[in-house]
Design brief:
alpha/beta, Rossmann fold, 6-stranded parallel beta sheet
């Protein structure tokens, strides 16, 4: 599977490393080259500096051939914009977007985006621990 990951913070780097280790073709994209330090030395994918809301940058990283696009930057707005471009402009089959504000989840669903809120996921995990 060919995957483009926008955002090479802790989550993006961890996901990139996991997918690369399983043999997937992974490209990480971040506006800050320093972020790529989080990738393990054995990472065999690509690390590209650029803005994921820019269509030319997305073409450069191979979005037109991507099977999946994951947006995990620190900004909900950047994540949703890039995800919309990937899904609607480039017709990427699987697009997943991280959002911190769980109140936006329904809106993003209406836009046809698969959004995951770590706020909601972690709150649910804590609730289960408290009750279990």
């Amino acid at each position: 599977m060919k995957v483009v990951i926008m955002g090479c913070g802790r989550v993006g780097a961890q996901l990139a490393a996991m997918l690369d280790k399983e043999g997937h073709q992974v490209t990480t994209l971040d506006i800050d080259a320093y972020s790529f330090r989080r990738l393990p030395p054995e990472f065999g994918g690509s690390a590209i500096i650029g803005n994921g809301v820019d269509e030319e940058t997305l073409k450069k990283v191979g979005i037109e051939e991507a099977d999946a696009f994951v947006a995990v930057t620190q900004g909900d707005n950047r994540n949703v914009m890039a995800s919309q471009i990937a899904k609607h402009k480039f017709k990427v089959p699987r697009v997943i977007c991280r959002i911190y504000d769980p109140l936006r989840s329904d809106i993003y669903s209406l836009l046809g985006l698969e959004a995951i809120s770590p706020t909601t996921v972690f709150a649910q995990m804590l609730k289960e621990k408290l009750e279990g």
